Amino acid sequence: MQNTDGLGRQDDESFHAWAKRIQNAVQYYETCSRIGFHRRLPYPRSRQAVYAYIVHIRRIVSRLPNRWYCTYCKSFIDRGWGADASMDQAVRLHLYSCPKHFNFDYYTHHAEMIQKAFRRYIERRNNKAARIIQKVAIPWLYRPGSPLIQKAERHFYCLAVSQV
Predict the structure, then answer these.
(1) pTM of whole model > 0.70?
(2) Among 68-72, 129-133, 144-148, which stretch is predicted with the lowest mean pLDDT?
């Protein structure tokens, strides 16, 4: 069987990891296509059972709408019903937003720089406002005879008496 859709067994993958991955994929595609079992599928205990699941997955995928498979992030992109365009708008938009595609970093680098600069600006603005308020509030809070100072004195003297 060809491994073009990623369902075949990988080079260093154990049988049980492969069977579990295929079982999860069957469950996923049946959920996406709204057909199939209402119960959890049994774990495939032989290669024949795994291959039967793979055939079942391919049958489901062939009935799904026109989808494009991203080899970078391993997901399907719905291309709509216009099958004549090889690289249509949905695919191009996905490649710009796919975090594992090489264009993602190129197109998002400038946006991230702007976001970081804006966050630093907001943080500086908030810190400046806090400093202005602090300059007024701290002398007022710690003025002689204020309730805060009286409470601190009571607490200190209670501790000092209990320590002796």
Answers:
(1) no
(2) 68-72
